[in-house]
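Issue: ligand-bound run for flavin mononucleotide - logging full I/O for the record.

Environment: standard queue, default settings, no custom constraints.

Inputs:
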Amino acid sequence: MTETQRLVQPASAVSAVDAIYHRRAVRDYTPQKVGRTSIHALLDAAVYAPTAMHEEPWAFAVIQDKNILNRLSDGAKGLVRSEMQNSDAPQSKHALDLVNKPDFNIFYNASTLIVIYSKLQGSFVVADCWLAAENLMLAACAEGLGTCVIGFAVSALNTPEWKAELEIPAEMTAIAPIIVGMPAGETPTVPRKPPEVIVWR
Ligand SMILES: Cc1cc2nc3c(=O)[nH]c(=O)nc-3n(C[C@H](O)[C@H](O)[C@H](O)COP(=O)(O)O)c2cc1C
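Outputs:
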């Protein structure tokens, strides 16, 4: 099988709708590393997202080096701390409590971080990257893998220092950092409010 081959779904595979309802933000992982073939399959699912003007404005970084992940977590915690300190937003207190814990790893010790970068500027580039992110997370869920978006990592990934360390071209922007791994257990469902329809004419 080539590295870029699409996921070949067995007859018992979960449907897209099942994946939508079963995907959870997973924050507890086994130490098992996600294999290259699985990662290529997730990236392939990501690039099948719709994209404005068919620009395909994304590029991906895959980070599995534990040392890099731990240092990135520490650097990101410092940045989040300074960003949140003067914020009145209700979520800031929770974020500060988390990043002030010395043992807190923003990647929850997941074996793999995939970062979706935008290569271009434009009105829909960010939307395109998030659509790719959701495709990736649903494909992972269908494969029995857990994922979680790590917004805490965005500021650090966009610093010149981390772009240089990861050899990311300066003009690219980190949009969606997503951890991927084998879930260590069941993740409870987070309830949703019913859809609020404001107009239906
Ligand atoms: C843009 C974005 C940023 C997020 N950042 C984080 C984060 O830094 N850390 C974290 O643990 N979860 C993060 N999440 C996950 C959300 O907390 C999670 O999706 C939400 O609580 C709903 O839970 P569910 O995905 O299991 O339904 C993020 C989600 C999104 C969409």
